[in-house]
Amino acid sequence: MSAAVLAVDAGNSKTDVAVVAGDGSVLATARGGGFRPPAVGVRQAVDALADAVGRAFAAAGVTAVDHVSACLANADLPVEEEQLAAALHARAWGTTVVVRNDTFAILRAGVEEPRGVAVVCGAGINCVGMRPDGRVARFPALGRLSGDWGGGWGLAEEALWHAARAEDGRGAATELARTLPAHFGLPTMYALIEALHLERVADARRHELTPVLFATAAGGDPVARALVDRLAEEIVSMAAVALTRLDLLDEVVPVLLGGGVLAARHPQLDDRVRELLAERAPKAVPRVVTARPVLGSALLGLDHEGAPARAHARVREFYERV
């Protein structure tokens, strides 16, 4: 059986690839490490993909496919997608190559046709939307530089800021001043600030504070609750703008919620997002996406190849089983 699509979903921490036939049969899959072009450069990042692609090709018994559908982390701007597409095309893995930001994979995995909006809140925050006619809505998603607020990393930083000010008297009292240092077995915010500054606690461990923030909010702390509500505002603002750009605000359309923070279904955040969506986009249908994003990459590849609906159903059935 010939292979039509190489589907790639490459995130900061892991990569999933699949070789898919034109009828939707998944011929082989493989998993690799993270994809981080900003840290290691485009060439080395693509080298990291090559190992997983090579194993999948070997298992499928192919050396190339008709089309490469790659949804990649750190492909935040169209110019970056073009650069990465050129780098993948140079590998001769497929006759044609389309690179998209990895948020598109989550969106496509959650819908039966390429129509809707997805908001992803993991380490950062991003939103994309698409219509079957090819129109898309997107944001640069470069953090505060591009007007973003939120994501697990942003929440942790904000929680630390409020906790530090609460402890020394510059800000409102909050239980965060106790719960954040306690997570690391430390007695005070001063001790946590010192530990982070002197790297006795690795900077990368800040992400561990996001669940602490949500737990503190669930306990009724006003400052923590306000941060969770602010995140809900950001999520719904992005979704409403994307729906408006695509002329979908007045249509029944899915709004997919993905990424670790949203997939955790924290009650306050989940409830507030749904309340705000009901106010600002009454016809939007919010739904948490739990499917593996590589499914979305495969479906986008089959879209490109004009595959029939039964092919889309077959690849979806495969990922529902694994």
From TrEMBL:
KW Transferase (keyword) present: yes
Gene Ontology MF annotations: kinase activity
InterPro entries noted in UniProt: ATPase_BadF, ATPase_NBD, Euk-type_GlcNAc_Kinase
Domain ATPase BadF/BadG/BcrA/BcrD type residue range list: 8-301
Pfam family, one: BcrAD_BadFG
Keywords: Kinase, Transferase
Keyword flag Kinase: yes
Name of this chain's protein: Kinase
Organism in which the protein naturally occurs: Streptomyces aurantiacus
High-level lineage: Bacteria, Bacillati, Actinomycetota, Actinomycetes, Kitasatosporales
